[in-house]
Amino acid sequence: MSATPVLYLSHGAPPLADDATWTRQLADWSAGLPKPKAILVISAHWEEAPLTLGATTRVPLVYDFWGFPERYYRVTYPAPGAPELAAKVRKLLHSPGTGVHEAPDRGLDHGAYVPLMEMYPDADVPVLQVSMPSLDPHELFELGRKLKPLRDEGVLIVGSGFFTHNLSALRQVGGTDGQPPLWSAEFDQWGAERLHAGDVDALLDFQRKAPAAGLAHPRIEHFAPLFVTLGAGVDDAAPRTVIDGYWYGLAKRSVQLG
């Protein structure tokens, strides 16, 4: 049995569900993957140290966004909890002086459930979300490397962020058909080239090496899940871009290893 692939995806805001192109791309992507036994999600929207496990039973979603129509706050995604996966994560990550914490009441945030609703709409795959304990690229890469054995057990590891993410700089972008701002396009092109080349060192040092890095990611939490993905796919061939293009000027590049 070959290892389950590992993904980094740009997850979009709740209105992603209204974008026919993007939702089809996500559905087509999952249709080409082996059905996972469980899904482990590392989202840009949960930073907590030490690393913390989310709920392992069905609890309400985390509607961690503001100013949207009421219908987006009524969405549900009743995926089963994943207590067995949680136990495996504890075993892989626990070490002297490094604990793994629990947040039994924390449901999936929109970085997890928004894309999963399109990829696995039946909500029949157990899902576990874990926090990002750091934004340090090397620490997150090492986290992914430690989680890598889960792929041999049918677990789909998903880093969920956004390939470029600067909402305050997008005020002049008119809509989904508008040209992306130069900073987003330059960063996306650089990232695509480094991914295609398998240049993990450059990606880990993107804040110094990438063009427009400070504009593309004034804070790096949406790029950071990529490093977990790269760590979990450390022995695979270079990442393959599955989705590209832009959404309201943001690069929605999403990649697969394995």
UniProtKB/TrEMBL annotation:
Alphabetic keyword roster: Dioxygenase, Metal-binding, Oxidoreductase, Zinc
Gene Ontology molecular function: any one: dioxygenase activity
Pfam family name, one: LigB
Record has Cell membrane as a keyword: no
Cofactor requirement: Zn(2+)
Signal peptide interval: none
Keyword Oxidoreductase: yes
Residues in Extradiol ring-cleavage dioxygenase class III enzyme subunit B domain copies: 22-236
Family: Belongs to the DODA-type extradiol aromatic ring-opening dioxygenase family.
Protein name listed in UniProt: Class III extradiol ring-cleavage dioxygenase
